[in-house]
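Please check this chain.
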Amino acid sequence: MLLTRRAAIKGVVATAVGTITGASAYGVLYERHHLGTTQATLPVSGLPPPLDGLRIGFVTDVHHSSMVPADDVRRAVDLVSAERPDLIVLGGDYVTWGDRAFVGPVAELLAPLTAPQGVFAILGNHDDDRDMPAALTAKHIQVLKRTRLEIRGEPLELAGIRFWTRKTTEIARVIKGARDTVLLLAHDPRRLDAAAELDVPAVLSGHTHGGQVVLPGVGAIARRSFPVLEGLASRENTWMFVSRGVGTVYVPVRINCPPEVAIVTLQRKSEI
């Protein structure tokens, strides 16, 4: 029987926690709270020259819960705000298992985020379709399907899909009629192949937590399930950036996989 991602993480963590000491224990007890800022450059085919260098603040997989305290979310907001990006996108999974006790609070914690071109959000697999989008909208965070921005005199199409939008035909409906450069926000990086098939030049994703538990000599438990666990990946003319995210799920542990917010800079790339 195939081992589920949750069971695998719990099993490996149980083994690891039982054997690690000293420096490794630091990763178990503290690393999950040591949030940092990652600077990334995302190549974008056909990006208009005025949009070269556009900076996007990217926050994903907050998972505000009893395991991910408000202070961690505030730290994420402060780190992104300090970078003064041109726009901010939120990549889903604001709570865990749709826990309504944290829906309002996490929206309140994210409310201070502002950017000249706006703050946009998509939903993850832990977010419900009613309460979470309503809470974000109430804080002036736009939950995306598609919107067309005018930045530096040039258009940019932001398209967002929820976790459960999986089929290429479903994604095609979201971006149908787009005439300008499309930036797709897709919670799950497994949408990379579909994006490439549709010739979407750029994608931002989360969901993987970077593996969350990355053991020396073993690697990340989830590495075979996704085209990329963190950082950059490409298929044909499509480039994707995947963030490790802010929070944790299943167990309150990160090992060799610190949490992050990201500042993603778009870079013009010639057509392949």
Remarks:
- The mean pLDDT is 91.
